Amino acid sequence: MRLPLALLTDVRLLNSGFRIGHWIHNGVTKTSLLSSCNICSRAERKWIKPVGFDTGVKTYNSLTKQKEPLVLAQERIATWYSCGPTVYDHAHLGHACSYVRFDILQRILSRLFEINVIHVMVITDIDDKIIQRSLEQNISPTVLARMHEEEFKRDMQALRVLPPAVYMRVTDNIPQIVAFIERIIGNGHGYVTSQGNVYFDTQSIGNRYGKLVNLGGIVGELGAQDKRDPRDFALWKASKPHEPHWESPWGQGRPGWHIECSTIASSVFGSQLDIHSGGIDLAFPHHENEIAQSEAYHQCEQWGNYFLHSGHLHLKGSVEKMSKSLKNYVTINDFLESYTANEFRLFCLLTRYRSAIDYSDASTNEARSTLSTISAFCHNAQAYMQGHLLCQPIEEGILWERLSATQSSVRKALADDFDTPKAVGAIMSLIHHGNCQLQPATKVDGPRCPAVFGAMLSYVREILGVFGVDLLDRKQSSDSCELPVILNNVVEELVHFRSKVRKFALSVGDQASQNPQTGSEIQKRHPQPDRVPLLKACDALRNNLAPLGVHIKDRGTNSTWEITRGGETRKN
């Protein structure tokens, strides 16, 4: 879905109590009516708390502008509808940020709080922009939409976004949309004009219009001349020459923007929806109009119980969101040439999902550094457990306490409106305390404590896995799924051979020298001269493999290794 980007440039007060606002949208000046007072009373906008299963999670609800207990109609089942893409061009990082953030929320609900999330997403495959772009490229709107729909799905897979239970295309649901509009008209909330357009009658629902957002009293655009009220919005648009169209009781045409989501969500979930999500730019008018027409169709007081909105992605130093219309965007494919899906997830996790987020080299490097710190801890913990890393005695009791406290803190943070920055902070604190005790030593006194590091390692992997960060870097490649395993085995054998050569080269011979004070002989232990070239060759191999992504760490006479690709790590 898309919301026109508009900048308010001028406002003039009218005697009628309305204001005229001049707006710039894609370089075109438009005029809107704005109300000088609130468009609905507090009583008529009151949120009705659902009755049902309390998840133990609190989430910020845009309907109430505060955190509310997340209560589901059915036990451990969440019905979730989200606005998908308008498929006329490449998806960019602004889109990706919203989809990844909500993917993280759904993963938290399902994997940590054991909620079965039933997610439906619409694909808008007929739209003004699709029609215009198809004319520019001299291809059919259907072909254009299918091309970018498949590209979008590939992008989401590359970012490890779990697919919804089902994608629903607008053009596959035209009969359902027509029937939905017919009932709205039959219920007294829509009207047909002489030009063949069908509009929602906002006056028919009184002051209930504006339940979600009151953006300074914005009430609608002046443009269409056949509307009864400037707040009214199109349910069905009469066709124009050379545009795609479908038959309807009101003549040939196509659906309005908002009706598709109400129809498709209702066709799957009926008259009640637990969660509706989208970018903050969709709150008005799109989600506002969805609420109005859905409640008019179902004749209910409250259709969607929770509306969750993600913040915009901004380029650092810019007040504008990343947008195609402003040509200030980065495509997902371009981003993934320099960074990984894991790094982008860390980038999203380091801010609250409903907060704006700055995209810059500094913020992406922070995500990369955080992921590197996590990976290094996992590598060192494994090395310690395998006996390759020798350390001083571990304060085991302290680490068990830290682990338990971290598990509690992370769960508490995520139950509080999915506070991922706080959760990540707790995880990094646990890793810090683990690293403080994983200090290499040449001589070990006392028992080893590998079990506590095994528990910490398992938890870090598990909770990062909940977020969709794959620390084991499992790749699903249709071209050569066995290549990573083969590569691991080759590197393992190479490092093992090098370790044996190095251990042999480090074996020392006794060399006598005289103590200048006493005149007595003392023994010094040095590598035998004929073995020094072997040591140099081992060092050269280690140094030469590093730029290729194979990093060998020598720990006394033992060695460990890891393979890194752009921040993602595969370890022995």
UniProtKB/TrEMBL annotation:
Cofactor: Zn(2+)
One GO cellular component term: mitochondrion
Compositionally biased region (Polar residues): 510-521
Family matches, as InterPro entries: Cys-tRNA-ligase, Cys-tRNA/MSH_ligase, Rossmann-like_a/b/a_fold, tRNA-synt_1_cat_dom, tRNAsynth_Ia_anticodon-bd
Domain of life of the native organism: Eukaryota
SUPFAM superfamilies: Anticodon-binding domain of a subclass of class I aminoacyl-tRNA synthetases (SSF47323), Nucleotidylyl transferase (SSF52374)
Chain ranges of the tRNA synthetases class I catalytic domain: 74-368
Subcellular compartments: Mitochondrion
Region (Disordered): 510-529
Biological processes per GO annotation: cysteinyl-tRNA aminoacylation
Catalytic activity: tRNA(Cys) + L-cysteine + ATP = L-cysteinyl-tRNA(Cys) + AMP + diphosphate; 2 L-cysteine = S-sulfanyl-L-cysteine + L-alanine; S-disulfanyl-L-cysteine + tRNA(Cys) + ATP = (S)-disulfanyl-L-cysteinyl-tRNA(Cys) + AMP + diphosphate; S-sulfanyl-L-cysteine + tRNA(Cys) + ATP = (S)-sulfanyl-L-cysteinyl-tRNA(Cys) + AMP + diphosphate
Protein role: Mitochondrial cysteine-specific aminoacyl-tRNA synthetase that catalyzes the ATP-dependent ligation of cysteine to tRNA(Cys).
Family statement drawn from the similarity comment of this UniProt entry: Belongs to the class-I aminoacyl-tRNA synthetase family.
Name listed for the protein in its UniProt record: Probable cysteine--tRNA ligase, mitochondrial
